[in-house]
Design brief:
It is built from 5 helices and 5 strands. By secondary structure, it is α+β, with helices and mostly antiparallel strands.
């Protein structure tokens, strides 16, 4: 099945057809050499900016495939990470992944994390 951007832009295709088109575009990008390693060399921010440019040009399928690539970069970075970090009142706090105790980087102070995202 071949779906062009004109059809997609007018929303004349179903959700399933969108998904097929996005997967096909991502496979096409990989075939051109835009591999996971290549994507990581640019970073997720670059891929998202590029996705935005494609979306502004009406190339929504390519834009969605680039968003997917950015997600894959972020997911890989997260899987490879050993420390999470966050800022609270201007101070950086860190903790080893899987440990719920946050310690202020380079100083005293801790934060407790409850329920994963509720910082108190």
């Amino acid at each position: 099945m071949s779906i062009d951007n004109t059809e997609a832009e007018r929303c004349e295709i179903s959700r399933e057809e969108w998904e097929v088109a996005i997967v096909a575009e991502r496979e096409h990008q990989r075939g051109l050499g835009y591999t996971a390693e290549h994507d990581r060399s640019h970073g997720a921010g670059y891929l998202l900016r590029l996705s935005d440019e494609y979306a502004r040009k009406g190339k929504r399928i390519e834009a969605a495939a680039l968003m997917w690539a950015a997600y894959e970069v972020l997911a890989t970075e997260r899987a490879d990470a050993t420390v999470e970090w966050a800022y609270w009142d201007g101070d950086r706090y860190e903790h080893p992944i899987g440990n719920g105790r946050w310690a202020k980087a380079g100083g005293k102070g801790t934060l407790n994390v409850y329920g994963g995202s509720d910082v108190r």
